[in-house]
Amino acid sequence: MSATAPSAIRSDIGRLLFPRSAALVGLSERSGPEVVNNVLGHDITVIGVHPRVRNVGGLECVPTIADVSPAPDLAFMLVGHRHVEAAFEDALAAGVRAFVMPGLGNEAGAEGPAIARRIAARAQEAGAMVVGPNCMGVAVPNAASFWIGTIDRSFSAGQVATVVQSGSIGEALVAVGPRIGYRCVVSSGGELATDVADYCAFFAADAGTRAVGLFLESVRRPDEFARALAMLGEANKPVACLKVGRSAGGARAVLAHSGAAVGSDVAFSALLRAYGVIEVEDYPDLIEVLDVLGRKRRPIGRRLGGVTNSGGEGALLADHADAAGLAFNPLSSDLAMRLSSEFPNYTAPQNPVDAWAIESVERIFPRTLQVMADSGEFDILVTQVDESPFLGGPEVDNAVLTLRALADAVEGTPIFPALTSVQASDAPAFVARLAQERDVVVLRGSRNGMRALAAVAGWKARRPPDAPAGHSFDVSALLKVGAMPEYESGAILERIGVRVARRRRALTPEAAGRASAELGFPVVVKRDGPAHKSRTGGVVLGLQDEAAVRRAAERVGAPVLVADHVSRGVEVFCGMSRDPEIGPVLVVGLGGDLAESLPGKVACLAPVSLEEARRMVTDATIVSRALQPAAVDSVANVIVAIGMLAIANPSIAAVDVNPLVVGERDAIAVDALVVVERSNA
């Protein structure tokens, strides 16, 4: 977190993004013609500031910003790093409180960071807002854009607001063509005075914004960022986020680029999940999701229907839909019969429907889509048609016919229409324009398209629940600093309602034998202390009599724990780790000796509702596919309890339940570890 970042969210930043007047400070011929082109010809008063030049590219200039009256809403700081501090002070003295500062990047060398810190401190003192430093600026379709790159006419207006901490990603968004309709693209750069939390809070209240896209390298104020995400959720505005810097090399690059350390990627993903943010893995995924979010309507459910012009492409589409968790369910018998009765060549229609060569293209696609739309069985209707700028005339005509048929079929319904292509290239220009006019999303690539639809389908805002009244999860009396022994860790879990395998503490091998007789066989002997994994040699499993227990206790070394051997069930890992910036993070995944390295874990910020805990288990597909459906709640209840334990006891740094052995309807904690950093007081 930047030492100069303000602690409160600032959402009154309208004139920073959409000023009514502006001064281009330091404007010269070297600034480039695009800088002037981006601001002229719009309903805004703009003037240049230069001590000697009186006109640049048709824009009038004055010697100092003090000569601009009244003071402009915004100053676009086109000044080199050696003069930018003085120019900033002059603008503050003239009454300017909003700045776009593209400089102070690599070109400033070793002097840049210190200059940036001083400007950030002065901005905070003066209550000023700053985009940057080290950024492209702010690009707004059909309006004055304080942006140092080229803005093409294809940069389209809409209701998707984006904030990116990488200038090159900002350029990529601006140059994506007539796909996404933007409210604005903010290249926020170093964020030393105004950060992503401020922008998100503004967009939450902005009537022109319906969805937000983020490309983040770091978050300097996690608490304020979380509050801003909650505000967006309350406004029913979905957020899609791509976070970079997850690898060691990526983290080093981010630190060098933005000057901010990268927190735990698992913890950050948990924060995003807690507030219903759609997290994506790559830039193409971000574009596809934003394209879906930018439509006038959104998918309201997950019932997916499709019509393709190829059986093979249909199978590929179905594979990717299933992998994304958005399956093409079979057609109802009634719908299949209606299709077959109208087109006898549909001998056994499947979903997606392969319409190729069933009847003439002009009839089969429009009627098939209309019958499917009229059935009421679908929330999303997809047509798969190859798209490329290199298509021949007949193929373009086919794409146009299919697109129009899809748009007509869903007209007046809540069904979300999407045209997908196996190609990752753009559609022909005419098809792209028609898709914009008819509000049909054109998705590039079967995999990315299905993932985007799955991510948005049925989206709902979420936020962490409050701790429930009437149940105390405060276990202060049981806590001791350090890694607590397994016996005491198990007692804490039992206190919060988690079922733990029966166990006895034994100080000698003979006492261990007697304890095993009390419990009944088979049993496990463990070294007494913090929980151990079997590979460490501190655990002996499957002991069937007292003699074997005594020998095991001698080998392990008394004192020991003797516990029930719970073997039947799926081994699941449930845990909590307290991130120093983001807070307590819950994790669920496959359990066992290699739990930490196994893929497929799901994390969420604590606390979680039972509904969210169920989603966590379901989304941990390796776990959910192994569990009986009735057992999902048994795992979810453990996750909820651990979350409430973490909230009620801030001294607990970590909790591990590994494994949690899950049967058909119940779950038993076999090993438990609670780590305490300090007292709750």
Q: Can you describe what's shown?
A:
With 681 residues, the protein is α/β, with parallel strands linked by helices. The protein contains 22 helices and 30 strands. The strands form five sheets. It has a seven-stranded mixed sheet, with helices on one face. It is flat and about 100 Å long. The protein starts with 13 loop residues before the first helix and ends in a 5-residue tail after the last strand. 50% of the residues are buried.
Give the secondary structure arrangement, pairings included:
Blueprint: H1 14-17, E1 21-25, H2 33-37, E2 45-49, E3 55-56, E4 59-62, E5 74-77, H3 84-93, E6 98-100, H4 112-126, E7 129-131, E8 137-139, E9 146-147, E10 156-164, H5 167-174, E11 181-187, H6 196-205, E12 211-216, H7 222-234, E13 239-243, H8 248-258, H9 265-274, E14 278-280, H10 283-293, E15 304-308, H11 311-323, H12 333-342, E16 353-354, H13 361-374, E17 380-384, H14 393-410, E18 416-421, H15 429-438, E19 441-444, H16 446-456, E20 482-483, H17 486-495, E21 503-506, H18 509-519, E22 523-527, E23 539-543, H19 546-556, E24 560-564, E25 570-579, E26 583-590, E27 602-605, H20 610-619, H21 621-624, H22 632-648, E28 652-662, E29 667-669, E30 672-676
Q: Helicity, in percent?
A: 25-40%
Largest sheet features: 7 strands, mixed
Based on helices, strands and strand pairing, what is the structural class?
alpha/beta
Q: Which word captures the global form?
A: flat
β-sheet strand percentage = 15-25%
Low-confidence stretches: 1-5, 250-263
